[in-house]
Amino acid sequence: MNTIVCSDVVKKFGAYTALNSVSIEVPEGKIFGLLGPNGAGKTTLIRIINQISIPDSGVILFNGRPLKREDVYNIGYLPEERGLYRKMKVGEQAVYLARLKGLSTSDATRELKIWFIKFGIQDWWGKKVEELSKGMAQKVQFITTVLHRPKLLILDEPFSGFDPVNVQLVRDEIIRMRDEGTTIMLSTHNMESVETMCDNIALINKSNLVVAGGVDHIRREHGNNQMEVVYRGDAPAAFSSEVFSVAFDEEYKGGRRALLDVVKGTASGRVLLDLVAATEEIISFSELIPSMNDIFIKLVKGE
Question: What pTM does this model have?
Fold first, then answer.
C-alpha cells in the first residue's frame, strides 16, 4: 500500500518546467527520501502534495484515491522556510497552529505541554517567539507540525540549524513515528541521514526523476563490483582468478590491502573469499558499496 502516488506530474511556471512528468510512489509506514540539488523541483512537488499549488497535468493519489482538499488535515508539513509570528507568545502560537489542524484548545494545550517537556522548552511557554534561539524556534515548529498525528509527515530540511544533540532528538522522534505507522517524506541534503533513516528514495534533477527505489538496492546497483581484501603479507599476493582482477595492492596497517575488480555475475562473495583465502591469511574481506553521497554527486553530474 502506498500513501502517496504521483503519476506523470507536470508543473510549469511560464516557459520554465519545474516538474517534467515525475512519477513516485511513497510506501505506507516508511521514511521516503526526496533528494535533489537546489532548484531541482523537490519543493514544487511537495507544495503540490500539500495542495499549495496545483499541477498542470498528472494524477496524485492519497491512500489509493484522488487527493482531496480535506486531506490536508491528515498531512503535517514542515517547510524549509521557517516562520513563526515573532510578537506572539510561544504557547499561544503553538495552540493557534494546532487548532488550524482541527484540535480543540484543551487537547492542543495538553498535548503541547507533553511535547514541550520532551523537547526541554517548557520554560518558554509564556515568552515571545522573538526571544527564542533559532534551534528553539525550530523545535516549536517541529512540534506543531506533528502534534495532530498526521498520516503523512513531510519534512523539508528538518535538521537545519540543530546541534548534534537536537539532531539526534528529532531523528529519534521521526523514527518513532515511522515505527508507529506514520508515512514520512524527508527532503534533505544530509546524505548520512538518508542512509541511516530512509527506506526508499527518489532523486530529482533538473525537473526530471533520475532514480527511485530502495536505498540498499540503489547503493548496490551503483557499485563498481569491487571487493576489498586486507591480508597479512610483506609483498603483493599472487592473486589469480578468472572472475576478478587486482586493481591495486598496497601496504596497509602492518599488512597489505588489495582492491579486486569482480566480473559482474560470476561469483558470490563466499566463492571470492574462498579463492583469496586459498593463498593468503585474510584479515578482512568486504564488498565496496558506494555511499548515497557519492551516488548523489555522480547522478547529479550526469556521470
Answer: 0.85
